[in-house]
Amino acid sequence: MSDTPTAEVWIVVGLGNPGPRYAGNRHNIGYLVVDELASRQRAAFRAHKTGRADVVEGRVGLPGAAGPRIVLAKPRSYMNEVGGPVKALATFYKVPPARIVAIHDELDIAFGTLRVKLGGGDNGHNGLKSMRSSLGTGDFHRLRAGIGRPPGRQDVADFVLSDYSRAEAKELPFQVGDAADAVESLVSDGLERTQQRFNS
């Protein structure tokens, strides 16, 4: 893919922490969504040449479809250091920040809901903070997957690094599927139409 004109390439980054210890955490919703997108491509993640992320290269839509080119990425670094790997991929594929989508957990949105936006602050999210620092701008797309606020007095850090409740786990596949649909819509149909469909 990197040898062809890259004007229409999008990089879709699932934010999370690598390794089995974190796999089911609320903080790892980004990984779950890019896994779903990869499964729709019937493709497996492979180490990228930069050595800093695992990627799937393909197109949006059914396998063999001629939809927009897309690079799904799972950085190999922890959440607070994802900016470096994202910057390396953006440089490799010659993709501007406006064609990068970060999928991340969002405390200020109820579980099961989504918001798609372009630009903004990091709202205390270490992954977004790292990306803004490395890219030199916050003007990338975000798909914010709601996880809600912790119950009672539970510490926020403990909450995001804990697994979904049993009830949430039953609903999680629907949220992940909707988020994957939203990414495909964003890349194919643009921000405004995607916001109308998915910003519940």
From TrEMBL:
Transmembrane segments: none
SUPFAM superfamilies named among the record's database cross-references: Peptidyl-tRNA hydrolase-like
Keywords of the record: Cytoplasm, Hydrolase, RNA-binding, tRNA-binding
Site for Discriminates between blocked and unblocked aminoacyl-tRNA, residues: 17
The enzyme's E.C. designation: 3.1.1.29
Role this protein plays: Catalyzes the release of premature peptidyl moieties from peptidyl-tRNA molecules trapped in stalled 50S ribosomal subunits, and thus maintains levels of free tRNAs and 50S ribosomes. Hydrolyzes ribosome-free peptidyl-tRNAs (with 1 or more amino acids incorporated), which drop off the ribosome during protein synthesis, or as a result of ribosome stalling.
Matches recorded under HAMAP family: Pept_tRNA_hydro_bact
Single Gene Ontology MF annotation: peptidyl-tRNA hydrolase activity
Site (Stabilizes the basic form of H active site to accept a proton): 105
Localization in the cell: Cytoplasm
Subunit composition and interactions: Monomer.
Source organism: Nocardioides imazamoxiresistens
Protein name: Peptidyl-tRNA hydrolase
Active site per database record: 27
